Amino acid sequence: MPRELHVSIELNGTGDHLAASPAAPHWTDLIGLAEQGALDFVAVGDTCTPPPDDSAGRLDAVATVARAAPLTSRIGLVPTVTTTHAEPFHISTALATLGFVSEGRAGWLVDVSTIGAEARAVGCREPAPVAALWAEAADAAEAAIGLWDRWEDDADLRNAATARFLDRERPHQIDFESPHFSVPGPSTVPRPPQGRPPIAVALDVHDSDRQWELAASHADVVFLDADQPSTARLARGALLRRAADAGRDPEALRVLIRVAVDLGGGTGPGALPPAELRFTGAAADLAGLLADWHAATGADGFHLLPTSAPADLPAVVHGVVPALRKRGLFRADYTGRTLRDHLDLPRPVGRYARDTEPVR
Question: How many CB atoms lie within 10 A of CB 332?
Fold first, then answer.
């Protein structure tokens, strides 16, 4: 039997056709529809650039998926958070909180900002060179993981009978130091339900070595750009070797190939999103393309970039997903509750977990 695919979709946080408020039905309806198709997760884009029309507002990816969390029950929620204009302490606490709100469905798409207008919009310095930004992102990911792990799983007692709500010996200082950050810790939020929200990184063969290093060392999911199956197969192999060299189990890394799609028959506004693999046509044909690439590359699945989510997502849910199921390549329904469950990823043991019994 062929191995089942992981399939996710990106909902871009910018664009004139998108609602400005995270509470708008547009967003909850799209995420709810993706859940009907049992997609692994939705990724929501973000930007610090002010919109041309100030009245339109700007979406915050974390706030958007947090609003959708109580209105959904299974689908993973992966907001984009850039490390260029945010501190790792704030990132880690926001994502840990999202983890609790969603009951273990949070993830994090790590990105950097190279745009001067974004820096000026938030009152920050001009962006550094790309390699330096990704080195900073790697430090931010390491600090966030440390903050999540510094709370032992059983530190949060909540024992009303004994009036003990916290074992003060089990949250720990992180004392993280790097050229970019100084983070003493511990976090103000307990360890998230998944231990650590899965980290995603977008990658292609031309990206900075620092970006590859971040993906190999910290990513649970990689969105890989490739224009040919042979390129994807070689890049995936190189990434898994680098993960092993970093002391990780390469089997615990999911590689999803990015595919820009237009399934709306020209009804969606704009051009295809930027990606090496691009498809315009019918849902059944896209399912065939994904099946062929899966067989040729060994990739774990695909991350879809729609030209227009309102036009393309229904075709994915009602066309592509059933066609993949007929091929035995996609789940009939969710079999777990957390994002790690959907991705077949284990819950990581905290780096600082102890064998001693907690104080009750």
Answer: 9
